[in-house]
Write a structure and sequence with these properties.
Order of helices and strands: HEEEHEEHEHEHEHEHEHHHHHEEE
Shape: rod-shaped
CATH class of the largest domain: Alpha Beta
CATH architecture of the largest domain: 3-Layer(aba) Sandwich
CATH superfamily of the largest domain: Response regulator
Largest sheet: 5 strands, mixed, barrel
Helix content: 40-55%
Distance between the termini: 89 Å
């Protein structure tokens, strides 16, 4: 903005402040200033107000909320910082001020101070509590690695995994591991991995560097993302001497990326021994189960033999033979008794030889013969009726009669053994179903 000659016009205060603001903003629109923080205030609006001073002067500063959310530390009175922004003027009061766009601690000591400040804050919030640490899976199938896809850390990890357990699957979530955008990318990668739920655990890693290089892993947003992660997180940032906030928040910490690979990957030989142990236990369990099933099958077969229709039919046939023999013996006994009496009569007749007595005896003999014949016929008829009743009973008890009433006999298609219980039928087993007029084959599906 061009400045008009002051002698040509009398300016109002507002006009003067406006001209001064234009000159300042056009000439000092991108400056870096280093100094000590003073009078730090953050009102409810979220904006940050402070003074920046040195031994001889100070300047009012304002950092608006949309820029302050990118701060990697909490500004505090007495800290030495470097700020970037433009010089402006608050026209309403005529205050000369610096509008800050970026702020960072000045020097390594300031970064360490910011680190200790955040560490103390998160410790007091309970994020370092060991009770919150999630256990790492003993045999992970797939792991996720959040790191730079071109860095040395990913090469070291993949090399260790190929050597120890080449079957393990790896998913890389590529991010920047330093710079202003890196912390946001790391947070997004952690949230994305949890949302997709495609891995068993996460490794957040990068190679070594200065405290400034590792600062993305000291970001509060990254710490909170690890704390809220449902997946176990392993922090493997830098070398053995490097300590970051992620090391305190993560569920496990390793001194190097290579150590992280060794921690999460089972050694193939150990896994093989574990599988051999499982196979041995499984074989023993199966043998025990088979022995138990064999004994149970033997018991069922014995019960089937005792309860089968053929066994019942055999018992009835034995009973019929016994009854037949008893009736035969009874008839023979009666015949023998009749013969004995006939012989006695004959002897008596021969001894006395009276004609009337003979005639009477002959009549009695004929009568006895008729009675005997009738008795024998009746007894034989009774025996035949009882025999027919037994045969009918046996027919009704036999399997053919059961089939005629609409029932069927189910047996194993391979062994022919009758299946009497649904619990003994296995899914996929072939069965034969015998009906009164034939046999059909089926398969157990449920």
């Amino acid at each position: 903005m061009a400045t008009p000659p002051l002698s040509d016009k009398t300016l109002s205060v507002s006009e003067l402040n406006g001209i001064a603001r234009g000159i300042l903003e056009s000439q000092l629109d991108d400056v870096w200033v280093e100094g000590e923080l003073g009078n730090v205030a953050r009102p409810g609006s979220g904006h940050l107000y402070f003074t920046l001073k040195d031994a001889r002067a100070q300047i009012r500063c304002a950092m608006f909320r949309n820029r302050g959310r990118f701060l990697r530390f909490e500004p505090d009175t007495g800290m030495r910082v470097r700020v970037n922004g433009k010089v402006s003027l608050y026209e309403a009061r005529g205050d000369y001020q610096l509008i800050v766009e970026r702020m960072e601690p000045a020097g390594e000591g300031a970064l360490q101070q910011a680190f200790e400040q955040l560490k103390r804050k998160l410790f007091e919030a309970g994020l370092f509590d060991e009770a919150l640490k999630k256990p790492l899976p003993e045999w992970p199938k797939r792991i996720g690695i959040i790191t730079s896809p071109t860095g040395a850390a990913i090469r070291d990890i993949l090399q260790i995994l190929r050597r120890r357990f080449a079957l393990m699957e790896v998913i890389i979530y590529p991010v920047q591991v330093q710079g202003e955008e890196s912390a946001g990318q790391i947070v997004a990668a952690i949230e994305n991995a949890n949302r997709r739920a495609e891995v068993d655990l996460l490794i957040v890693t990068r190679g070594g560097g200065s405290l400034e290089d590792l600062w993305s892993f000291n970001d509060e947003r990254v710490a909170l993302a690890i704390h809220h992660s449902a997946l176990p997180v392993v922090s493997a940032v830098g070398h053995e001497i490097d300590i970051t906030i992620t090391d305190y928040v993560a569920d496990a910490r390793t001194p190097t990326p290579s150590a992280a690979a060794e921690l999460v990957s089972p050694e193939a030989e150990i896994l093989y021994r574990h599988l051999d142990s499982i196979a041995t236990r499984l074989t023993a369990t199966m043998e025990t189960m088979l022995d138990t099933r064999k004994q149970r099958l033997q018991t069922i077969r014995q019960r089937l033999r005792r309860a089968s229709p053929s066994a019942t039919l055999q018992q009835q046939m034995l009973r019929l033979d016994e009854l037949t023999q008893r009736h035969t013996r009874a008839i023979r006994g009666r015949l023998d008794a009749a013969r004995f009496r006939l012989d006695a009569l004959r002897r008596s007749l021969l001894a006395h030889e009276p004609r009337p007595a003979i005639a009477l005896g002959r009549e009695r003999l004929q009568s006895l013969q008729r009675r005997l014949t009738g008795t024998m016929h009746d007894r034989m008829e009774q025996a035949r009726r009882r025999l027919a009743a037994c045969e009918n009973a046996l027919k009704h008890l036999g399997p053919e009669a059961v089939l005629e009433r609409g029932y069927a006999i189910v047996s194993d298609a391979e062994t022919g053994q009758v299946i009497t219980s649904a619990t003994t039928a296995r899914e996929g087993e072939l069965i034969d179903i015998r009906f009164r007029d034939g046999i059909r084959r089926g398969e157990i599906t449920d």
